Amino acid sequence: MPAVSILKPLCGDEPALYDNLATFCRQTHPHYQLVFGVRDGADPAIQVVRRLQQDYPERDIALAVNGARHGSNPKVSNLINLLPLARHDLLVLADADIAVEPDYLTRVSAPLADVRTGVVTCLYRGRAMGGWWSRLGVQFIDGWFAPSVHVAHFGGSRSFAFGATIALRRDALQAIGGFAALADRLADDYWLGELTRRHGLVTVLSDVVVRTDVTEDSLAELWRHELRWMRTIRSLNPAGFAFSFITFTWPMLLLGLALAPGAIAIALLLAGGAARSMLAVADTRRGAGASGVDLAAVLTAPLRDLLLLAEWAAALTGSRVHWRDNLISVRDRLPAAPPSYPSSPSRKGTLPERTP
Length: 356
Prior knowledge:
Blueprint: E1 4-9, H1 17-25, E2 32-38, H2 45-55, E3 60-65, H3 74-82, E4 90-93, E5 98-99, H4 104-109, E6 117-128, H5 132-154, E7 166-169, H6 170-175, H7 188-197, E8 202-214, H8 219-236, H9 238-242, H10 249-259, H11 263-288, H12 295-315, E9 320-323, E10 326-329
Helix pairs in contact: 1-2, 5-11, 5-12, 8-12, 10-11, 11-12
């Protein structure tokens, strides 16, 4: 199996950071490298990486500390700065808050053996790390976002790529202009997939589902995070976003009852509400591996849908979002020519000819 470089941009000591990163040190893939990057020499994530190097001496673990900025997206700057340390032609990008199973790397890199593959990406399931609000955040991921991707995928769409995991070959990255092509783009994960698709390459949705931590412990934090997601979705697919409100079960049921009150409407409301609550229970149990009924998931399903509707309405306007300590525009535009950036040792590869 080909060797792989895992690229991990870090920022701060997030909850469960060591445990999540350690899952990447326990991969069964025979030959791989871990490359971490931080932008500040005082970043507490550095100590987490040093601990990993001590606890897993058999692993090839590199760390880049480089504060150079290459655009408005700090994560992409981090990737640009750490890429020169990557020694292999297969690259796997994964966010810091992701945890994976031991066979993850082998499974997500396998489709790259086909030269027609541009990127391989994974969906993710949420794990609540805070209190009640983080559980609502998990329901956003498991009960609305992931199902919407499955529906789009079933319908033939491949217009996605998720920061939870993106695997690609180095030659595909070079063909699109490297990470520099993403330096001023908020939705860097989406555009990494989109630019490879524009080169005639295929996006593969892996059957691997990774786990992501949901850490928001207040309504304000949850609102900022999910509003960023919603405005980003709107910027990428305005028409689809405009009509996505029809998937918000409880608001639509209540609207139907208001427009056509009566016994039939009440019966439909009860049936639809019961179905929505059962789906919430199924999503929560599947994500946590639980065997009992999660009553909280049932009771909070209406609130979750109403909050989703409010976020959707707020996302219809506005073009700026909060990301960590940065205020970033969601108006992604392709530059005429991407700027240059530090490169790793040259490795040649051949891409298939671009399809018309």
